[in-house]
Amino acid sequence: MRAALDDVSKELGRYVRLTNYASGLCMPEIAVLAGMERLDMMLNDSMYGILFRDINPIRTFVDQRFSRQIHARAGIIINTGEDNYLTTADAVDAAHTVTVSQLLNERFAKEAGLEDWQLGLGHAFEINPDVPESFRLELAHAMLARQLFPRAPLKWMPPTKHMTGDIFKGYLLDGFFNLAGALTGQSILLVGMMTEAVVTPFLSDRDLALQNVRYVLGAASGLSEDFHPPRDGFIQTRARQVLSEAVDLLERIVADPGGASGRGSAPLLSAIADGTFGLMKRPADRGKGLDGVVERADDYDNPAITALATPARRTTGRASGGTRAAGSRPSARSARSAKGGEA
User: Fold this and answer.
1) Which positions ≥6 away from 156 have C-beta within 8 Å?
2) Do residues 163 and 173 make contact, with C-beta atoms less than 8 angstroms apart?
3) Catalytic residue from among 48, 63, 85, 274
4) Is 288 labeled as catalytic in the residue annotation?
5) Per-residue pLDDT at 326
6) Annotated catalytic residue 48
7) Which domains occur in the chain, in start order?
8) Catalytic residue selected from 45, 155, 171, 205
9) CA distances for 47 relative to 15, 84, 137, 258, 266, angstroms
10) HSE (CB half, 13 Å, CA atoms) of 97?
């Protein structure tokens, strides 16, 4: 795939990024392959594996840290999966859990050595369109994420939960999603498909979806400079409410380490076991891969972790004149989010 995209990059005169997943029970192994084969972006979030693939929480937190250390060294942007919470929980009531998870993912990523430009923190356009003021609520949530993480790219997920099979309504919803992305400076836009709830999208569907993105970003990409909601208006008030609920939840997690489960484990593990995120309950002593978890001995040493913890000097992939060389990875600076978003 990388070799094929390098050929296409030469034809187009611009670098084409390659994306994949570091997930499941082989996050570190996939991360190593991604570094070797020059991938540019990888989904990397243990919470996704815990909640939606029933992978043991301890196992996948360990795998996540090591794989993120590899991504940090390889200069790969990560995506996180908070958007998935809103497919199982209500996007209005559970908005604060997305914010909490974003804050946690930022902390874990920084601890593993990732820089701000590598943090594609996830969220989604998943409020029921029949809810009054749904678009204003979506804007509030998107603007909150952008202001909390001003130097990080954000992975903005199109509507999926409320795609009904009405392709015309779906196309309109995707247009609103793209507009919200432009208004709030989202950096990594996933492309919404109007046939999301009908079939696996055909190539013609994908072409129409890309036309939607190109039109909205071409017509409105600069609106993030002009759009400022009024002080203490609906959008600001909603954003403050979500942030306040997120802070309250973090305080409750820390204050009640045993959680409702009463297991007395680490606070975050107890919160996950209690169904705090995405309404999915995943105890720390259950799930796939538990037999691969071994407690460290006092004299444990892993030279690979020591090597990865040592900062590496990255080389840029820019050619002279500011034009990116076809077939080369974008530099750390050039890989940062472009104004108006990228599709």
Assistant:
1) 123, 124, 125, 142, 177, 180, 181, 186, 187, 188, 189, 190, 341
2) yes
3) 48
4) no
5) 38
6) yes
7) 2-293+301-322 (3.20.20.440)
8) 155
9) 31, 10, 25, 19, 15
10) 24
Contact yes or no for 174/189 (Cβ under 8 A): no
Specify whether the CB–CB gap between 253 and 276 falls below 8 A: yes
| 215 among known catalytic residues | no
- Measured CA to CA, the distance from residue 55 to residue 189 in angstroms comes to 28
Instruction: Give the side-chain half-sphere CA count within 13 A for 213.
Output: 21
Q: Closest Cα partner for 118 from 330, 339, 336?
A: 336
Got the DSSP string for 186-204?
-SEEPPP-TTTTTSSPPHH
Angle at 20 between CA 14 and CA 25, to 5 degrees: 160
Asked whether 173 and 179 are in contact (CB, 8 A), the reply is: no
Tell me if 105 sits within 8 A of 150, measured CB to CB: no
Residue 68 has, within 13 A of its CA and on its CB side, a CA count of 27
Q: Which member of 40, 45, 83, 274 is catalytic? A: 83
Q: What are 275-311's pLDDT values in tens digits?
A: 999 889 999 999 999 998 888 999 999 898 888 887 6
Q: Give the helix ranges, DSSP H, for the chain.
A: 2-12, 27-36, 46-53, 57-74, 85-88, 95-111, 134-148, 167-184, 203-220, 223-226, 234-255, 267-273, 303-308
Distance CA 290, CA 41 (A): 28
Mean pLDDT by 10 residues, the chain (343 residues): 97 96 92 96 94 93 95 96 91 96 96 96 96 97 96 95 93 97 94 91 95 96 90 97 97 74 69 91 92 90 87 46 39 35 35
User: Is the Cβ–Cβ distance between 149 and 119 less than 8 Å?
Assistant: yes
Place of tokens 């209500």: 90
- pLDDT (0 to 100) of residue 322: 31
- At 313 the pLDDT is 57
